[in-house]
Amino acid sequence: MAVFSSGGVEIAYEVAGEGYPILLVHGFAATADDNWGRTGWVQALTRAKRKVVTFDLRGHGASAKLYDPADYTMEKMAGDAVALLDHLGLERADLIGYSMGAGIAMRLAATQGARFRFVVLGGVGGRMLEPSSFGAATADALEAADPETIGDRTARGFRLYAEGLGQDLRAIAACARAPRGGAATDFLGEIRNETLVIAGARDDMAGDPAVLAARIPGAKAETIPGTDHMFALPNPMFKGAVMDFLTGYI
């Protein structure tokens, strides 16, 4: 992966294909390659004649590891995405975010909407509008000496997932503890992009995509049957619905 500096933080990125650009933002504890390469998204989008831009979020994958939770605010992570577009000389792009990446994409659409055309918010739904203890519980799990002692099933799953990818667990824990500042409802009404909210029907972490889409002016919602949070990205129906949206069919 190539590397550039975003305000002094080294961010690893890759560009594949030619055509109208699309920026992909991966989820918490993941990497660009695991979310977008392994699952076939880069291949599908380059075949559709798109320039695909992927990057590892700060603290993740090949990007710089930071250990202060204050370094992982949504504003700073969204700022890395904008800095990458600037670095590549891309004035406008489509945007897909998954899970935490969808939260970053929401912030980008609300604050930098003119930089984006179509916006896809994957792996999120009505649960985003509810209070959550995800950050603290997951950070504790990432810092636990023995994963067998972790009682929270979801948190334990993220610990094992991060370990499997060879992540720096201390950096990922700092990301989990980051102050998020304000509810999603504070800026959803500012989004004016063509937006799709999409999640699996069995995705208990996301909840109903339609509930979140109803808070975004003009947004569409799709629920993909038979899939959950961890298996939505490789799901052909999920991928097909997003591709249809990007090409104007839904």
Tell me what you see in this structure.
This protein is α/β, with parallel strands linked by helices and 250 residues long. 34% of the residues lie in helices and 20% in strands. It has nine helices and eight strands. It has an eight-stranded mixed β-sheet with strand order 1-2-4-3-5-6-7-8. Strand 1 and strand 2 form a beta hairpin. Helix 5 crosses helix 6 and helix 5 packs antiparallel against helix 7. The longest helix is centred in the first third of the chain and has 15 residues. The radius of gyration is 17 Å and the shape is globular. It starts with a strand and ends with a helix. The relative contact order is 0.15.
Number of separate helices? 9
Strand order of the largest sheet: 1-2-4-3-5-6-7-8
Question: Helices and strands: which structural class?
Answer: alpha/beta
The number of distinct β-strands equals: 8
Rg (C-alpha, Å): 17 Å
Largest sheet: 8 strands, mixed
Beta fraction: 15-25%
Terminal CA distance reads: 34 Å
Global mean pLDDT = 95
| pLDDT < 50 runs, ≥5 residues | none
Order of helices and strands: EEEHHEHEHEHHHEHEH
Task: Offer a few descriptive terms.
globular, eight-stranded mixed beta sheet, 250 residues, single chain, alpha/beta, 8 strands
